[in-house]
């Protein structure tokens, strides 16, 4: 096993001991499959011959994804709220009944924080952000881990963190905290499983990916859509990188130019990285606040 750095911004990742997974014929659970990155991951896995159990609260979005995949017979739709612990605990039985096995879990479902200061965001919203982004990832992982560890040829888990876990983003302190927790959970889980399991864990650190959430954020900041889109990575490109890195059993993947930029900058100076983030976003977030 190679031990390369997993420091922030490092484009290299840690390769675990298992050989690369062949996706064809394998079954993957993808949360957030009704839109954005989750949809593109589901499409990409099916293009490579995989079978996907797509989970999302948005049933209309799941139907749209089903219409976009290369082979609808290899995509099943499941309405699921990852913040509902009891529903998550029941979900592995539902997937097993539909597909008979589970070879991989892509935890992508997440919600954003409206640009609010810590004093402004409500307790209810704080709890919801943590339940969806962090606890949803933890509960899904714990629920599916026994099925994944039972696979004789190994299995994969991918957890989705964020650029906000690398550098503080004005107006997104709670969101950043939830995604930083996801990252440390993923790294720690990878260590837990390294010696005793054939399951590998990949933590994805995406930057600005052009999704509906990013479009709404651009509108809130007053950024012209064409400008925001020019800086964002297409979700299908992000999905390809996330799938490939996970398939190879690597510990970490940074996705997007801005995520790489802030990762490298933070390694050189956390102060500089924080100031750039503030100048880039804070001017807009705090312009109406005294």
Account of the 3D structure:
- The protein is α/β, with parallel strands linked by helices.
- It has one domain: NAD(P)-binding Rossmann-like Domain (Rossmann fold, 3-Layer(aba) Sandwich), CATH 3.40.50.720.
- 50% of the residues lie in helices and 13% in strands.
- The chain contains ten helices and seven strands.
- The chain has helices at 36-47, 59-68, 85-99, 123-149, 173-194, 212-221, 225-231, 235-247, 257-268, 270-285, and strands at residues 27-31, 51-56, 75-79, 104-107, 155-160, 199-206, 252-255.
- The chain has a seven-stranded parallel sheet, sandwiched between helices.
- α1 (36-47) crosses α8.
- The longest helix is centred in the middle third of the chain and has 27 residues, at 123-149.
- The chain is globular.
- CA-based gyration radius: 18 Å
* Name of the level-1 CATH class: Alpha Beta
CATH fold-level name: Rossmann fold
**Could you report the average pLDDT, rounded to the nearest whole number?**
87
Helix/strand order, N-terminal first:
EHEHEHEHEHEHHHEHH
Shape: globular
Strand numbers in spatial order across the main sheet: 3-2-1-4-5-6-7
Strand content: 5-15%
Number of strands: 7
Low-confidence stretches: 1-17
Helix fraction by DSSP (H/I, runs of at least 4): 40-55%
CATH architecture: 3-Layer(aba) Sandwich
Number of helices: 10
Q: Could you say how many structural domains there are in total?
A: 1
Biggest sheet overview: 7 strands, parallel
Secondary structural class: alpha/beta
CATH superfamily: NAD(P)-binding Rossmann-like Domain
């Amino acid at each position: 096993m190679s031990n390369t750095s997993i420091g922030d911004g490092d484009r290299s990742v840690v390769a675990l001991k298992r050989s690369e997974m062949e996706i064809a014929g394998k079954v993957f659970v993808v949360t957030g499959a009704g839109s954005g990155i989750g949809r593109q991951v589901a499409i990409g896995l099916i293009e490579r011959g995989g079978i996907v159990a797509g989970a999302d609260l948005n049933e209309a979005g799941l139907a749209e994804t089903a219409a976009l995949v290369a082979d609808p017979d290899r995509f099943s739709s499941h309405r699921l709220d990852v913040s509902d612990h009891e529903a998550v605990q029941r979900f592995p039985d539902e997937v097993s009944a539909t597909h008979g096995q589970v070879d991989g879990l892509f935890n992508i479902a997440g919600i954003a924080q409206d640009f609010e200061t810590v004093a402004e965001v409500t307790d209810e919203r704080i709890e919801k952000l943590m339940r969806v982004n962090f606890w949803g990832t933890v509960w899904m992982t714990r629920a599916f881990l026994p099925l994944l560890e039972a696979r004789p040829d190994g299995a994969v888990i991918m957890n989705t963190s964020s650029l906000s876990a690398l550098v503080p983003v004005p107006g997104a302190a709670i969101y950043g905290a939830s995604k930083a927790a996801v990252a440390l959970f993923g790294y720690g889980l990878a260590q837990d499983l390294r010696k005793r399991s054939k399951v590998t864990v990949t933590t994805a650190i995406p930057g600005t990916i052009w999704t509906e959430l990013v479009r709404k954020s651009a509108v809130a900041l007053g950024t012209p859509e064409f400008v925001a889109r020019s800086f964002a990575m297409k979700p299908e490109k992000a999905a390809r990188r996330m799938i490939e890195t996970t398939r190879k059993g690597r510990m970490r993947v940074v996705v997007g130019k801005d995520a790489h930029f802030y990762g490298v900058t933070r390694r050189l100076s956390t102060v500089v990285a924080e100031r750039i983030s503030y100048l880039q976003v804070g001017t807009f977030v705090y312009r109406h606040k005294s």
